Amino acid sequence: MEKFNQEKHGKVIDDFLKDLSTTQKDAFILKGGTALLKCYGLDRFSEDIDLDGTKKNIKEFVDKFCKKYGYEYRIAKDTDTVKRTFINYGGDKPLKVEVSYRKRNIPKEQYTNINGINVYTIDMLCLMKSNAYMSRDKIRDLYDLCYIGDKYYDKLSPATKTVLQNALEYKGLEQFDYIVQNNEDPLINKDKLADKFLKLYDKAGLLYDEQERQHTISISEEKSTKPRKQKIVMEFPDKDKSNNRGMSR
């Protein structure tokens, strides 16, 4: 297998979303990092496709898609509420496609169509990312939330701004430090993250003094110049990091 190629991986994502939008109109709504990347200009790469399904099952579509392009696929989870599939297109990392069927009836005001793709509004994506940030310590959630705040803060509803502010207050600056120090992600520029976080804190009206400002800015610099601090981190097995056994064709 060849090494991970963002351009090739991104092309598979584009083909998948294009075919999905053409043949399964109004059946699925894009969410997550790829929604921000493909429809709202997110400045980091996103590897997976996350969807909410409203009508049809995704399995039949994946099967037809893979046959069309000569790919293999593996069904990793198949329940009434979640369908997870890995598509092996020949690269080092398969494309994960996950569909949630927990919300069968989604109000039309919660999503829109951008670039031919049904996608949640930026307001809804901000709510989702705020809730994700409050419930887990993933640096991608934090980065995406800061991106939304940097580019779309004025377009958020007052209620969503309140949820965003609550999420930032709930985690605080210390948790920002912890997340940055304990998450290594090649897709995240930590200097850029620190800058966006500082701007978002300011937009959200959260109070901090000059010492806190300088501490936030220096976090990413400290990461590269000082030995990593040893912290107790609870790690849970990632069920998605399984190999490609059981691929279908």
CATH topology assignment of the largest domain = Nuclear Transport Factor 2, Chain: A
* Quaternary structure annotation: single chain
**CATH 2nd-level architecture of the largest domain:** Roll
Mean pLDDT: 86
State the order of secondary-structure elements, H for helix, E for strand.
Answer: HEHEHEEEEEHHHHH
Structural class, by secondary structure, is alpha+beta
Going by CATH, the homologous superfamily of the largest domain would be JHP933, nucleotidyltransferase-like core domain
Count of discrete domains: 2
Number of strands: 7
Strand order of the largest sheet: 1-2-5-4-3
List unreliable stretches of 5+ residues: 224-245
Helix percent band: 40-55%
Number of helices: 8
Which overall shape is indicated by the principal axes computed on the Cα atoms?
globular
Biggest beta sheet attributes: 5 strands, mixed
Q: In CATH, what is the class of the largest domain?
A: Alpha Beta
N- to C-terminal distance = 17 Å
Residue share in β-strands: 5-15%
Cα-based radius of gyration, to the nearest Å: 19 Å
